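Why should sequence recovery work at all? Because a backbone constrains its sequence more than one might expect. Tight turns favour small or flexible residues, buried strands favour hydrophobic ones, and helices have their own preferences. The token representation captures these environments compactly. In the example below, the structure is given first.
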């Protein structure tokens, strides 16, 4: 072959190779093509489990509950927190599988334990429709401290209330003293002359009072040997609660 004038032989051969093969490199073009992105799969979130209970607004004048009672010392400061619960749509855990208001219900409650006023599943499993709870702490003019927890559960019938599992739990405690007055039955556990626990079954309501010994070293009442509220005050709190709280109708939002 005769070379074309003015062109290098190598260049001429390269042009002929392209013409003969018809191949053109597309490497550069391919790198400029947009890449398709696979869609991110949507992960289905598990449905939230319905709860055995749901919280409802509840308040009562607990700061006034001890007014005029024979505490032995004048109360100068009262603080309280309260919670209300009603039956939810979820399943409730029956008795025997969860601790009660305390894992040691037969002994004096120590410390301001929130578990003492949290909803008790097994009471709702047994037919309770409502639970009202309050934790109250009072300080006297002498600097003594007294604290207690009150909870009540409402049932559809008096028979259901009398058969509530909490009743069996308290009755199983050593030293429990039972008393009956009309249609009201009480179970008491004492430390000295003062009840540290009282369970009351009154018609469709079950009421639980527990004295609380503060865990921060605060002195109890100097007017009683145990430092707990006197029995007469517990009698008053029982009547006050059943009149002002347990008998109240809670308005749901």
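From this structural description, the recovered sequence reads:
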């Amino acid at each position: 072959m005769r070379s074309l004038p003015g062109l290098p032989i190598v260049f001429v051969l390269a042009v002929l190779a392209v013409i003969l093969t018809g191949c053109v490199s597309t490497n550069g073009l391919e790198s400029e093509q947009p890449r398709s992105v696979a869609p991110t799969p949507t992960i289905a979130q598990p449905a939230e489990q319905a709860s055995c209970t749901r919280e409802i607004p509840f308040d009562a004048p607990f700061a006034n509950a001890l007014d005029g009672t024979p505490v032995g010392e004048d109360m100068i400061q009262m603080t309280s927190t309260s919670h209300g619960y009603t039956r939810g749509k979820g399943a409730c855990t029956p008795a025997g599988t969860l601790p009660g208001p305390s894992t040691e219900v037969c002994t004096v409650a120590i410390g301001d334990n929130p578990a003492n006023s949290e909803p008790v599943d097994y009471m709702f499993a047994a037919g309770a429709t409502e639970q009202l709870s309050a934790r109250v702490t009072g300080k006297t003019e002498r600097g003594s401290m007294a604290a207690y927890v009150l909870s009540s559960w409402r049932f559809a019938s008096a028979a259901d209330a009398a058969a509530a599992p909490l009743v069996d739990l308290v009755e199983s405690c050593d030293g429990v003293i039972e008393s009956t007055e009309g249609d009201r039955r009480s179970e008491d556990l004492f430390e000295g002359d003062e009840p540290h626990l009282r369970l009351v079954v009154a018609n469709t309501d079950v009421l639980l009072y527990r004295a609380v010994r503060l865990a921060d070293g605060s002195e109890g009442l100097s007017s009683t040997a145990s430092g707990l509220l006197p029995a007469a005050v517990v009698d008053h709190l029982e009547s006050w609660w059943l009149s002002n709280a347990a008998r109240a109708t809670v308005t749901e939002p």
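A few observations help interpret the result. DSSP finds six helices and nine strands in the chain.
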